[in-house]
UniProtKB/TrEMBL annotation:
Pfam family, one: Thioesterase
Alphabetical list of InterPro entries matching this protein: AB_hydrolase_fold (IPR029058), TesA-like (IPR020802), Thioesterase (IPR001031)
Protein name: Thioesterase domain-containing protein
Lineage, top ranks: Bacteria, Bacillati, Actinomycetota, Actinomycetes, Kitasatosporales
Species of provenance: Streptomyces echinatus
Domain of life, per lineage: Bacteria
Record domain Thioesterase TesA-like: where: 23-256
Amino acid sequence: MRGNHLVRLRESTGPNALVLIHPASGSAASYRALEPHLGGDFSVYAFQATGVDAGRPRSIEGIAQAYLAEFQAAAPDATPIYVGWSFSGPVVVEMARLGEEQGRGPAGVILLDSAPPEALRGRTADHAAEIGGLLGLDLSATDARSVDELLDEAAELIAVASDTPGLTGADLRPFWDVYVWHQGIFDDGWQARPCAAPLLMVRAQDETGWNAEPECLGWSALVGRAVPVVRAPGTHYTLMDEHRLPGIARIVDRAIEEWAAAPHPARERVVRPSPVSS
């Protein structure tokens, strides 16, 4: 997407702002659908990236720096709560860390079935699952194997469901290209660094692709303290399906209420994360 990536979904006079960062698809559609289910007196912002822009930084640090600056310009006085889903988990942790260096840390960070880069690189998923998840389709029974074949089949399914005859796999290719662009960022061996803000992991209880990763998907080891984990129905790709959004909203609302009631020291000064009991 060219130009600004930030979309304001809800305006509030409250001190906090929920800041939702897009997954590898670049889409903020699930966040738009989530917003009506959220309670509380806080603003809601979402980042989206609907295309591949050659001038956009292609690194976790670069995206985090750009998004942090864009949010701070839009809401300079708000205390953020960052939310990252899948790809964007490392992005929001880096945004939190960078903000803490400025003395403008978040109240907390919510990770939606996301892991540090090492675990993300080792996650088990095939192209059918990825393309199905990207487009909201079940392609588990398909005989198609190549990306082009899968996109063609997806186009046929979407054309029938949405009454858009003539839709082809080539029409869907840009969505896949954005997804691959973001996923490829982790190929350079980038290592996440800890933030001091409290983290909450929301695990997709039906997901099997994390293999032998720990319950927290490795975040506790990274930040040097126990990261609490809650389970929510769905897989990595269906966690944010429309009928599951009320449950996700309740988790988010509870976290914001708890964090807002307990000011975080990283908002005023830079602190080192220290181990705490679970």
